[in-house]
Amino acid sequence: xxxxxxxxxxNVLGFQVSGDITKEDYDVLTPAVATAAQNGSVRLLLDxxxxxxxxxxxxxxxxxxxxxxxxxxxxMAIVGNHRWEKYLARMAQPFYAQEAQxxxxxxxxxxxxxxx
Length: 116
What we know:
The protein has helices at residues 26-37, 59-69, 83-95, 106-114; strands at residues 2-4, 12-21, 42-54, 73-79, 99-103.
């Protein structure tokens, strides 16, 4: 499931990514980012602390999201508690965002995406 977080505002969006992600979950993420991108660059926080896996049917939507929004996403913060999530943040930079970083707490991530 992908659910927008209450700290989202203007072009700064945060999402809780939990459980197994399906193709339909991108119906939450994609329109929100598209709307924010109409007003310029987007700063995105993805909290993966409860993320389990992405189903095969979602892979195409995931790749399409990266292709469509890479240039619009100025910063992407990945929040998690596993080592593989640090590597995911490194991979996000060339494929999903202009700049990406890993954070172990949501507070640090929000501070970074909100910073000027």
